[in-house]
Specification:
Chains A, B: It catalyses: L-homoserine + NADP(+) = L-aspartate 4-semialdehyde + NADPH + H(+). Two copies of one chain form a homodimer. By secondary structure, chain A is an alpha/beta fold. Chain A has 15 helices and 17 strands. In chain A, strands 7, 8, 9, 10, 11, 12, 13, 14, 15, 16 and 17 form an eleven-stranded mixed beta sheet that branches. A six-stranded parallel beta sheet of chain A has the order 3-2-1-4-5-6, with helices on both faces. In chain A, a hairpin with a 4-residue loop joins strand 9 and strand 10. Chain A is elongated. Chain A starts with a strand and ends with a strand. At the A-B interface, helix 1, helix 2, helix 7, strand 12 and helix 13 of A face helix 1, helix 2, helix 7, strand 12 and helix 13 of B.
Chain lengths: 438, 438
């Protein structure tokens, strides 16, 4: 006969409706796999009275008050899908205090202010699923916590924002500037009216904070994550990247060193031979380097109603199976039993070594190149290749492109500051980090 | 303080020693994550007296008799890593009967004769981990059973044999013939002395049988899987593939239709724009198409001591966490609760539609091309593109290459049989299926 698990969902937006669709469309499939009836008893949404679809019509309780779910003794699992910090946090905390297991896809909340939530859930022996918070439908949270549990994961490289990846892909394919592609993405619904979180790297930073916390078994203070978005990327840089055999991606990078870690988000040039360079449009991929299993890549749709709904539903199924087994929880929310307060220092971006793409915009006149090269040399930056400007007339402003060998971020910052103050340099120098080229 | 789980490992070959290395090197990491001491109490291997390394020296009990482990009341988890059908099956069955949880990476046994084992483990409420059986270190078994549980998985495309992929990659890069690359792979330890299982697709067929069983929630009779290896692939075909914008991969393909399924293994041409075409050397990748999460790709090292050892260790950790929770098992071995005996008919390869690459080897003389084209037309096969032979003298045997539109396998088999019986056709026609071209 199997048990029946009652679920209440708070928030009927994109992910909320996707989750309901997945659970209702695949009710038979889920029952066949688990033997459990997963019953969506109630949905709370401030606009619920204005919403209607064939799925919603099957839900017994529709309410505008989240506490109709949080305080319902029949509800086993509360699913928080409203996003944002508050009241989402309050809803989650109150659900836990009422003995409910919780599923959420709220990366902003978990990255910035998750600690109190994780602690409370662990103390109360309750589950908190958040597979949908990173990589949409890509199985990655439980993969890190469980499948790769025998490994020390030392490096993460993620393309984990679909909007930014879509914009960079279109800029590359259609040779359009950022602003134009953004407008089109907004019209298609791939970018929000206020795209700041996506294009400025904030959403990516939230997600890499969660991944690095799980992978490195230490809490990462979100405010220490270096974040740079893609809004300053120009067509000319995409063109130069192609000439250098590279693609520009908004990459989240996290590395664990002996005594510290680095966690950063910025546009990055990667060689075309890397599989990550083939991750296009709204697709996401997470590339892990672990000490025993070595490299793994996890690829799929990083957003959208049904992919993220699939991850949320997977969490619900997982928790339902645990409830049915009648046992205590043995896997801590973050996958490790150490105290949460053990922090590793997060490296300052200026102390991180990498190669750099530098595009100077300088007057085309004698001596300019040697002046710039001289300043780079003064800061110990050596050049691995340079692209000559095309045809121009003396007095034109031309792009001068250099690829550097590995050097400290600080050296580049200082050199570029000095170069940008030269009379002959007419625009701010464009600096893009490069991975995978020596 | 945490519990101590005792593990006994049968078989100290590549995967056995890799598993021990992972568990011992990362003992502290695993303890930090789980709170559990995973203690390798004993290792059984017929050659144990001839083996010695720093890991082995830390193991309390070394024996040549597997039953010293199977009958040891202190052992919680028996790990079978000797491979092959027997005595591996007997060891697993006896371990289960003695109340032990089992971990194995034995794909041949599970694919061909797993049913009795799965049934017994489920009846006794014991765990049977087999993450290491497919895709080496790539998390895929539990991903299908748990993370994607809310989905109907409808298609699988896998590059799941590292040896075959290594050989095809080298043939492509170094322009060498199969035999030469195979010899080099054997010298490097990437291919076994008897490479039949790997190069003839048998190992790939074992693995897709397991994946399709899990993904489609039905038992796949292994003997119904169509299998064709890579030993007949010639440099000339690789060259033509490149000219067509494709790569040749040994692909495992499984698709679920309304009333039947297809499961097959054969060399396949795929367009270079597909990410799977970028999976090179010994790397593996599994591409899934699910109804809700859509496409996902799972990539990593498909073999080797440490990657597969990581998967086996992950299973051990997972089971240890369950034992610690003191609860009954709720996830069936195959991830679904239906009876095992529900079979879907497996489509005959002749009843499967696809595009084909056909290389005819015919005399270069007038009328030959139209004769061949005429026979193709008679069987309803239409051509999407053709590659003209290069310079040749009348009377030479030249390759004639056609790419067909989608057609039934049966049509191609019949047409090729008729064409190969022509006087002017001098060698057996090479037939390679094509995915992703219409």
């Amino acid at each position: 006969m199997g048990k029946c698990i009652n679920v209440g969902i708070i928030g009927y937006g994109t992910v909320g409706s996707g989750t309901v669709e997945v659970l209702l469309d695949n009710k038979t499939t889920i029952k066949r796999k688990t033997g459990i009836d997963i019953n969506i008893k109630s949905i709370a949404d401030l606009q619920i009275n204005k919403k209607d679809d064939k799925y919603l019509r099957e839900i017994p309780v529709k309410t505008t008050d989240a506490y109709d779910i949080i305080n319902d003794p029949e509800i086993d699992i509360v699913v928080e899908l409203i996003g944002g910090y508050n009241p989402a946090k309050q809803f989650i905390m109150d659900s836990l205090k009422n003995g409910k297991h919780v599923v959420t896809a709220n990366k902003a909340l978990l990255a910035v202010d998750g600690l109190e939530i994780f602690k409370l859930a662990d103390e109360l022996g309750l589950h908190l699923g958040f597979e949908g918070s990173v990589g949409g439908g890509i199985p990655i949270i439980r993969v890190i916590k469980e499948d790769l549990a025998a490994n020390n994961i030392n490096e993460i490289y993620g393309i984990i924002n679909g909007t930014a990846n879509y914009i960079l892909t279109k800029m590359d394919l259609e040779k359009k500037e950022f602003d134009e592609v953004l407008r089109e993405a907004q019209q298609l619904g791939y970018a929000e009216a206020d795209p700041t979180f996506d294009v400025e790297g904030i959403d990516t930073a939230h997600k890499i904070t969660i991944l690095a916390t799980l992978a490195f078994n230490t809490v990462i203070p979100y405010e220490k994550v270096f974040v740079e978005g893609i809004s300053k990327i120009k067509q000319v840089d995409i063109d130069f990247a192609n000439r250098l055999g590279c693609k520009i991606k908004l990459l989240a990078i996290a590395k664990k060193h002996e005594n510290d870690i680095e966690v950063r988000v910025h546009p990055t040039m990667i060689p075309e031979r890397y599989i990550l360079s083939k991750v296009v449009d709204v697709f996401n991929a997470i590339y892990l380097v672990s000490d025993k299993v070595d490299r793994t890549i996890h690829y799929g749709r990083g957003a959208g109603a049904r992919p993220t709904g699939s991850a949320v539903a997977g969490d619900i199924i997982n928790i339902a199976r645990w409830i049915e087994s009648g046992c205590k929880k043995t896997i801590p929310i973050l996958g490790f039993k150490d105290k949460y307060t053990q922090y590793y220092p997060v490296k300052d971006i200026n102390d991180i070594r990498s190669s750099f793409y530098l595009r100077f915009n300088a007057l085309d006149k004698p001596g300019v190149l040697s002046k710039i090269a001289g300043i780079l040399g003064k800061y110990g930056i050596s050049i691995s290749s340079a692209i000559q400007p095309g045809e121009s007339s003396p007095g034109d402003v031309v792009p001068l492109v250099f690829l550097t060998h590995e050097t400290l971020g600080r050296n580049v910052t200082n050199a570029v500051n000095e170069i940008d103050s030269l009379d002959v340099v007419k625009e701010k120098t464009v600096v893009i980090r490069v991975e995978g080229k020596k």
